[in-house]
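Incident log, structure service

09:12 report received: a user says their structure output differs between two submissions of the same chain.
09:20 pulled the input from the user's history:
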Amino acid sequence: MRVLARLVRLRGARSGREYADVPPNAAFRTIDGSGHHQPARYRELVTSFLRGRVGP
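09:34 re-ran on a clean worker, output below:
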């Protein structure tokens, strides 16, 4: 299946999960520590993505 919509995948740096299946057109960002401990950084990345400033 091909995803045509813009996509951002965020992950905490300490997360044990790997994302080998990130689509080639997706933006992948790591948040130092974990996202729920850094809500301002999470919000910044999501807002930047929605405004078109975070790309693959």
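09:41 both user submissions now match this output. Likely a transient worker issue. Closing.
09:42 reviewer note: The mean pLDDT is 77. Residues 8-50 form one domain.
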